[in-house]
Every structure is written in structure tokens, then in C-alpha cells.
Amino acid sequence: MLAELERQLRFAPADALRRHLERVEAMAGEIDAEGKYPEDWVAFRVTGYRPPASGHAVVTGEALLGDISALAERLSDAAGVTWVEARERDRALDADEVCARWSISRKTLERYRRRGLPARRVSVEKGLSKLAFLPEVVGRFERTHELNLKRAASFTRIDARTRARMLRRAVRYRRKFDCSLNQVAARLAERFDRSHEAVRQLLRRQPRTGPGPAFDRREPLRERQRRVILRAWRRGLEASDLAAWFGVSRGAVLRALNVERARLLRGLLETALATVPSPPLFERADADDVLLSAPSVREGLAPPPVTDLLEWIEAARVREVVGPAEEQTRLAAYQFLRHRAARAAQGLNLSHPSGSALDEAETRLRWAGLLKALIVRSQFALLVETCEGRLARPLEDMRAADLAPLLHGAVTAIGLALDHHDHTKGGRLAAAAGLAVDRFTARWLRDHAPGVSMTHRATPRLRTGLPFSDWTIGLCAWRAWLDPDPRLRSASKAIEPGLARILAMRFGWTGGPPVSQKQLSMMLGVPLVHAARMERKALRAALTLARAGGAGT
To answer: Which of 17, 36, 133, 353 stands the most exposed, by the fewest C-beta atoms within 10 Å?
Structure first.
């Protein structure tokens, strides 16, 4: 986001660039590392212009502070700021002077720059450049980080005796508590009043044959391993079991799991979430209450799928009456859920994504998937009429081998029309859905006409008992990796009632919206970690029963 902002500003006049640079330096003192900031606010603080609301991403204060100094460098370089100018007019300090003032090393100064200490990149003779720090920026950072600067100034190297004591305790923590490298480093850093990173590097340097705890330099989990971890976790396996299997810490497994979930979620921004409307109502603080509280978007969301082809056609012929207001309510709720999921995906830190933020976004996508199926189902009578009009025959006169792909393709066509439908214009979905199905059927008939077999009306080939796969599974791109195994819904009816209730609430099988882990813990009255553990236990129980062929699966 900051790179795009710099690209837009770098060709501005020098005076304008200097004003932007001053705003960047002032903004660094206003950001809280624990806070969250919308993209339009950042643009406004730098340029003085607030762009129109259009689904701006939200970034964390920590990530913003880490990149502010780089933005200041690029703007000052584009503005042609010189060292002579910065020194004489602004009384700027160079890096060595700042290090001497705080009694720190250059490496520590680099760390402080990533915590919100912006520097200007100024030119010196012969095309060289150096960093310049304005006195007011340095003073503000001193006031904000006074304690850290005092500790850094009193820093001493770890002597041999202290290092030996640390290693002995590290061995004890490793053997007694089975702590990971980071966990041991955190304990030792607190006990010996040292930085976490310094202790961690000390432990990593110890050879396996030495007196230390022999922490290996393990390679990070690769993409294929992350996919395996996600698949196993979705089936209820515990992170500790996966850690033992891959020979890493539990924390490494959880981080790999969240990184893979974030990667999949961000991938939707290029596909399923690429075209999401963003009317002003979606930006309101009470948008959830306004758009997601109506019974039409909270009830009857997930009826059991009809898996018999003839029964599906007969049920589809029954026209569902949905009024314009109710349809608009559902359309707005569906697009709003996609919009909020897209914003959450844009604001993720892909290196260390938040598990709670991921779960919130995934829960919204599950709800959006159920709503999409409900909206598409209301167009089934239109689907049957449009297909039969193009085929000039009842659907029952087709072979099952030809009919099932046709119906699945027509359902997908309605889903695509729904994704591109602008509900803010007030039009009914039927027009777009009917046109999409007609075009798909015409194209399908043109491609398959020589091999499509029709029978006489009096002797239909369709009979009860022909399978028809669940059409909702392929309706949304995210359902393939967010929904549990399709067999679990029926298998859950035969497991312990309390566990079955957890799965039903979590995935929306009760007919209401799915719930996040945080909401689940509140409903059950247990801590969040206990709710997550109970969910995995329920998944394992249902999957074991499904694999054994229980509950009629």
C-alpha cells in the first residue's frame, strides 16, 4: 500500500514532496503498534486528501511503522534533499551522531527505524547518500521509547559465566517442559534481563555435541507440508500431534497452519472476491446490525442436500415465492459478507497472520456460501423452464449422464450472475439469472448436440435412485477448503449430542448462520481454547464414524 502511495507521489514537485515528507514524519509519532489503521486514513495523513470509500484495507500499526522509514527515504530522495540543506536548515543528525547520543550500535538503530524512527535519504558529494534524522523526530522517539533507550544504553555483552548459566537452564527447560527454542529464549530473556533475540541467537549457535540444549536450525515448513497440516487440522488432528510428526514445535505448526490459511484467503482476492461492490452502507459501524439481522438471512440457510436426480428436478419445479424486498435483503447481506471477508484478507500479515482474524473472515465466507446457495435455490424453477425451453423437451427425457452435467453447469451460471449482480440498482436477479442459464444451455447444446440422447416423452429414462452430487459444494471457490468432509453432516447425528451440536453451530447446519470459535466459546460458556479443542474432538468422532460407514453414510 505504501509502495503504491510512493509511486503516485514521487513525480510531484519538490515542494509538495517535502510537505508529504513532513507529514510522514509526523504520522510516525501518532501510530500505535497495537492499533489498526485504514488505508484511506494513511493516504489522508500523507497527502491531505481523503480518497472515496471503496473497501480500503486495514493495516496493523506494527506493519505500518516498519515501512514508514522506507517511504520517508524514497520521498526525500525524489525531492532531491541534500545533506547540506538538511544540516544547515533543519540541524539534522547523521546515523553516527544518533548512535552516540543514545549509546547504541548501528544494528540497534536499524531496529528502531522499523519501530517508527523515520530517516531521510539525503545526497552528498559524488552521488553518494546517507541517512539524516531530524532533531524533532529523534526527540519524539526518545520520549516515546525512554525505557528501551535506557536499557539499550546500559547494554553489556553476555559474559562466559552468564552464558553457561543460561545454557544450563535452557537444558532444564527443554527436558522438563519440552519448550521450543522461542519459549526457552523468552524465559531466559525475562530471568536474565536480556533481549529475546539475543538469547535466541545464543541458543541457536550452540552445537549439538556441546553443553547446550542443541536447538537445531530447522528449515521452515514448505508449502506442501503446510497443505498437509491444514488438511489434517480440518479433520480434527491436534497441533501437538502434527508437531511430533513433522519434528517441529507446536508453535511452528500453528504458524504454518495460519500462513496457509492466509495464503488461500488472499488468493480469493484474485478470483472469487475480485469483484465485490462497496456501497457506503458497507462502511458504517453498524453495518452488521443493519444488514445481517433480518430473519431472511439468518434462517433456513442449510437444508439437507437432495442427492436423487429425479427428486431434485421435481423439487426444483416448485416455484419459491421471494418478494423484491426479501431478495434485496439477501443480496445485500451476501455482498456485504464477501466485502468484509475481502477487507480482512487485504489486511492480513502474511508472515504472522492472526488466527482470530482468519477465523472471523472464514466464518463470514461460510455464511456467504450458505446465503449464496439460498439465493441460487430460489431461481431453480426459472432454471428448469429456461433449460427446457432451449432443449424443447422436458428434462426427464434426457439421459442422466447428460442431464447431471447440464444442471450443475446451469447452477454455476446462476452463481456467477449473482456475483456480478449489482443489488444497489434495485433490479431483480431473475433477469440476469435467466440470461446466464439460457446462454450456458445454448453453448452446452451446441457443444454436446451430436452425443446427447433424447427419449420419447412417454418413456422417460429418468427413475428414482440416480445419484446427483451436492450442487452447493462447487458454488463457491472457498467451500472446497473451508467446509468439512461432506459425510460428516450425516455422521454427526450418531455421535455424542453435545459434540454434534458443536459441529452444527460451527458450520451452520442448524439452519442459522455459522459461528466463529469466539462465538462458540461464548455459547458454550468455556474458554476459547477449550471450545477449539471440543470442535476438533467432534470432527474426529464424526470422521471416524463416517469412515466406518456409520449413520447411513
So the answer is: 36
Same-domain check for residues 253 and 363: no
The whole-model pTM stands at 0.67
CA 319 – CA 54 distance, rounded (Å): 37
- Angle separating helix axes 429-448 and 400-419, nearest 10 degrees: 140
Q: Is the alpha carbon torsion for 416, 422, 423, 426 positive or negative?
A: negative
Residues 11 and 103 in one domain: yes
Q: Are 261 and 482 in contact (CB under 8 A)?
A: no
pLDDT digits (tens, 9 = 90+) for 118-129: 999 988 877 788
Q: In this structure, what C-alpha cell is assigned to residue 339?
A: 466485502
pLDDT over 80 (residue 5): no
In a domain, 217, yes or no: no
Is the confidence at residue 203, as pLDDT, over 90? Answer: no
| 235 in any annotated domain | yes
Domain boundary among 483, 501, 531: 483
Q: When comparing pLDDT for 56 and 521, which is higher?
A: 521
CB proximity list for 71: less than 8 A, separation 6 or greater: 2, 5, 6, 24, 46, 118
Question: Alpha-carbon distance 19 to 81, whole Å?
Answer: 12
Position 343, amino acid: R
**Are residues 90 and 133 located together in one domain of the fold?**
yes
- Identify whether the C-beta of residue 42 lies closer than 8 Å to the C-beta of residue 5: yes
Using 50, 70 and 90 to split pLDDT, how confident is the model at 552?
A: very low
Domain of 512, in residue numbers? 485-553
Task: Check whether residue 170 and residue 254 sit in a common domain.
Answer: no
Please provide the distance, in angstroms rounded to a whole number, between the alpha carbons at the two ends of the chain.
Answer: 49
Q: Is 156 helix (H, G, I), strand (E, B) or coil?
A: coil
Amino acid at 462: L
